[in-house]
Specification:
Blueprint (H helix, E strand, L loop, with lengths): L21 H11 L4 E5 L2 E4 H17 L7 E5 L4 H12 L3 E5 L5 H10 L2 E6 L14 E4 L23 E8 L5 E7 H15 L6 E4 L6 H12 L3 E4 L2 H4 L2 H10 L4 E4 L1 H9 L10 E5 L13 E6 L9 E4 L10 E5 L3 E6 L12 E7 L5 E2 L3 H7 E3 L9 E11 L5 E5 L5
Parallel strand pairs: 1-10, 3-4, 3-5, 5-6, 9-10, 11-12, 12-13
Antiparallel strand pairs: 1-2, 7-8, 8-18, 13-14, 14-15, 15-21, 16-17, 17-20, 19-20, 20-21
Helix pairs in contact: 1-2, 1-6, 2-3, 5-6, 8-9
């Protein structure tokens, strides 16, 4: 059957610099500039070298506790340097990291532990309520006094590979239940390369980390940014609860980039930042933002994507007076492709409505422990050059606009 060639856009993936896993990329930054700050929290700074040592120490403890390559290891710790180091340790041993928020309901935590097949749970102490829910899983408690400066340790032999699952994102499956979308190292590095090449994120940036640990937004804040060499600056919950406090904190901490959820973008829209602010880039979900700042001193990048495809597949710069909720979702980012297909899986002519399918380097492996659902939503990519490439059915409908942008039309028809 002849396929119509109406490709919207396919970016070329930014060439890797020799490091093909997330932990490998972060380790290379620690080797090249060990004293540069990796994480800052409450006035305390953790250098790249010390973050690497913390992760190495924890990786050895994970292995001793029975964690294995490709298995699921859950980390339920508050947002901060220990949580980041614990997740990095999971990546180092080649396991899949399931980050959980201590603030989630016990019902949700119980479901996610069982659904993702967790074999080891990392907590702050053995009195944490989640410990009673970890049936069949080993529990590793981290000493709250774990120092951020650790003596040199022999490096753990990395078990990670570009195609191995690094992260289990929280995606909404059939019936509204949460399930683990498998995101690989290669998926995350696509975003790191895009942030560097298209957004200029790099070692001079201080990136705000305010998302809950178990959210996909946290995945976007932490791993692509650390892999790009930026410094993560952790915001406390008390600050995140106040628009005035958010603006003051952004100025005081000299934040240059942030991924802003609904509350944060509202805070920026309520009043302008002071002249001392260094914020230059704000990324926000095009479908969730309630309003945009009227005359911002920074660029606003509205993104669109799916949890199953590393959260960002398309983006566009917000123009003056643009309203949130616009069906215009921008163009695919470099390394991603969005196809508009008819019911027979063929590309529709330019301007005609069809279903949006995501392809390219950001498409994950599927859903953990849900083979039937994976087979429904992830299928071999008939348009790509990679024989192993997959294409993801979003359930959204839309059409191509002149110039290559995409206009989404209605709510998703599949969950």
């Amino acid at each position: 059957m002849r396929r119509r060639r109406y490709m919207l856009h396919r970016g070329s993936r930014h060439a890797a610099d020799g490091n093909t896993t997330v932990d490998g990329r972060i380790a290379s930054h620690a080797t090249s500039e060990p004293d540069r700050i990796a994480v800052s929290h409450n006035g305390g700074n953790t250098s790249r070298a010390n973050l690497e040592r913390m992760a190495e120490a924890l990786a050895q403890r994970l292995l001793a506790a029975g964690a294995e390559q490709d298995k699921t290891v859950a980390v339920c710790l508050p947002r901060g340097v220990q949580q980041i180091a614990a997740c990095l340790a999971v990546l180092k041993i080649g396991a899949a990291c399931l980050a959980l928020s201590p603030q989630d309901s016990l019902e949700m935590l119980r479901f996610r532990l069982a659904d993702c097949g967790v074999v080891l749970l990392v907590v702050q102490n053995e009195r944490d309520p989640i410990v009673s829910l970890a049936a069949g899983a080993e529990v590793l408690a981290i000493d709250p006094a774990l120092p951020t400066r650790i003596r040199d340790l022999p490096a753990t032999a990395s078990g990670s590979r570009p195609a191995s699952v690094a992260w289990l994102a929280s995606a909404t499956c059939a019936g509204g239940a949460s399930c683990g979308a498998e995101i690989t190292h290669a998926n995350v590095l696509l975003l790191a390369d895009w942030l560097q090449a298209s957004c200029g994120i790099g070692p001079r940036d201080r990136v705000c980390h305010m998302a809950e640990p178990g959210s996909s937004a946290a995945m976007l804040e932490v791993w692509p940014c650390l892999a790009a060499g930026a410094t993560l600056v952790v915001m406390d919950d008390a600050i995140a609860a106040s628009p005035v406090a958010i603006r003051a904190w952004l100025e005081a901490e000299a934040i240059t980039a942030m991924i802003a959820g609904e509350d944060a973008i509202d805070a920026l829209a309520q009043a302008p930042l002071g002249r001392e602010a260094r914020l230059r880039l704000v990324m926000t979900d095009a479908e969730r933002a309630r309003r945009y700042p009227a005359s911002p001193s920074f660029r606003i990048l509205a993104t669109w994507g799916q949890d199953e495809c590393t959260l960002v597949s398309a983006a566009h710069l917000v123009h003056r007076n643009e309203r949130p909720g616009s069906p215009h979702i921008g163009r695919p980012i470099a390394g991603a492709a969005i196809h508009i297909l008819d019911e027979d899986g063929q590309r529709v002519p330019l301007g005609q409505e069809g279903e949006l399918w995501i392809a390219g380097a950001g498409v994950g492996h599927g859903y953990r422990n849900r083979p039937h659902l994976t087979a429904e939503r992830f299928v071999p990519d008939p348009f790509g050059r990679d024989p192993a490439g997959m294409i993801f059915r979003t359930g959204h409908r839309g059409r191509a606009l002149p110039g290559g942008a995409i206009r989404r039309s209605i709510q998703p028809e599949v969950c």
